[in-house]
From TrEMBL:
It comes from the Bacteria. The chain crosses the membrane at residues 12-32, 47-65. Residues 70-79 have a biased composition (Basic and acidic residues). This is DUF2637 domain-containing protein. Keywords: Membrane, Transmembrane, Transmembrane helix. Residues 70-96 are annotated as: Disordered.
Length: 96
């Protein structure tokens, strides 16, 4: 599923942003519900918790997408040991 999301163009920074936005929306929904609804603080708490519970899912998906991005980057790069091997000269024996 994560590789499919990655292939569709979804990146980890988008999911991290969604998680932070979810936390902000949780606070805003609590304030709005507490001020403008006559249902009381219990209902405001439920709204805030409902929206705030999305954040861990967004963070976890962001981490999984970041791992996918790192795996893709490693696949494209030349390994470090291959880059350095052409610059290293083999020592010669003295007197030969």
């Amino acid at each position: 599923m994560i590789s499919t999301l990655h292939k569709m163009g979804l990146r980890s920074n988008v999911m991290y942003s969604a998680a932070v936005a979810s936390i902000g929306m949780s606070i805003v929904s609590w304030i709005i519900s507490n001020r403008y609804e006559a249902a009381g603080i219990e209902r405001a708490d439920r709204w805030a918790l409902f929206v705030g519970e999305w954040a861990p899912t967004f963070f976890a998906t962001g981490i999984a997408l970041r791992m996918e991005e790192m795996a893709e980057e490693k696949g494209r790069e030349t390994p470090e040991w291959q880059e350095q091997s052409s610059d290293i000269r083999r020592p010669t024996r003295a007197g030969v």
